[in-house]
Write a structure and sequence with these properties.
Strand 2 and strand 3 (121-128) form a beta hairpin. With 168 residues, the chain is an alpha+beta fold. It starts with a helix and ends in a 7-residue tail after the last helix. A 4-stranded antiparallel β-sheet has the order 1-2-3-4, with helices on one face. It folds into 2 domains: 10-84, no CATH class; 92-161, no CATH class. The protein has helices at residues 2-6, 10-46, 51-86, 151-161, and strands spanning 92-98, 109-115, 121-128, 133-140.
Length: 168
């Protein structure tokens, strides 16, 4: 009666509904296959584990992550402290060996410059003679000395600062 009112033949409606049922059956089969794969993956994931064991494993891993975060923070703090301490240590060195007197041989005298990153430090000059060894120290501030430096001391200072362009 409705088909006559709308002007359709009932055969077309039945064919359309059969096609719709066929599409739905195909979608259901695809859904069943995907669900089967999901169950298989779930069984592999849960194999040998119950919910309590899985929860314990997750809690253990989260605690390990927290421990790693805390260790990383401690490492960053220690690195910062080490970097600050390194600014005050002697990092640069220049050494020049020489003969203080013409009659002495073997280059037993030396000038040793020790500087920090800001070129502050000292120069030790040890002069070896037949009577003994005399040592002198001169303070270095910003790569300069208030006291006049000998040629060997200046060369040691230049070596420590990386300035090897002095005439010998």
């Amino acid at each position: 009666m409705i088909s006559q009112y709308l002007g359709f033949d009932s055969d077309y409606i039945i064919i359309g509904l059969a096609a719709l049922v066929l599409i739905l059956i195909i979608l259901m089969i695809i859904n069943v296959v995907q669900m089967s794969k999901l169950k298989k993956s779930y069984k592999i994931f849960m194999k040998g584990k119950n919910a309590k064991n899985l929860e314990d494993t997750l809690i253990k891993r989260l605690n390990q992550v927290d421990d790693l975060i805390n260790a990383n923070s401690a490492n960053e703090k220690n690195i910062k402290t080490l970097f600050q301490n390194m600014q005050r240590t002697y990092q640069k060195m220049g050494l020049v060996k020489y003969d203080a007197f013409n009659e002495m041989g073997g280059k037993l005298s030396f000038s040793l410059a020790m500087l920090d990153v800001k070129n502050n430090g000292f120069i030790i000059n040890a002069m070896h003679t037949r009577e003994g060894c005399y040592t002198y120290i001169k303070e270095i501030i910003d790569g300069n000395s208030v006291i006049v430096l000998s040629g060997e001391e200046q060369e040691a200072l230049n070596n420590a600062m990386g300035e090897n362009n002095i005439a010998k």
